[in-house]
Specification:
mainly alpha; about 60 residues
Length: about 60
């Protein structure tokens, strides 16, 4: 059985570092989004998706 690409990608993605999380929080705050604490994310991609969703919501307002 061959591994599909998605399995490999998920395994290679690490838990976001504090520096990455802080960078995203700073970015969100620059959009006027209040972020007191970030939910725990298992993967950087989840964090990025969450950030993108918040930015989209902010743009719609």
């Amino acid at each position: 059985m061959r591994h599909n690409v998605r399995d490999t990608e998920v395994k290679s993605v690490s838990v976001p570092t504090t520096k990455q999380v802080n960078k995203v929080i700073k970015e969100l705050r620059s959009y006027g989004i209040k972020v007191s604490s970030v939910p725990s994310f298992s993967r950087v991609s989840d964090l990025m998706r969450w950030r993108d969703n918040l930015i989209e919501e902010a743009d719609e307002e």
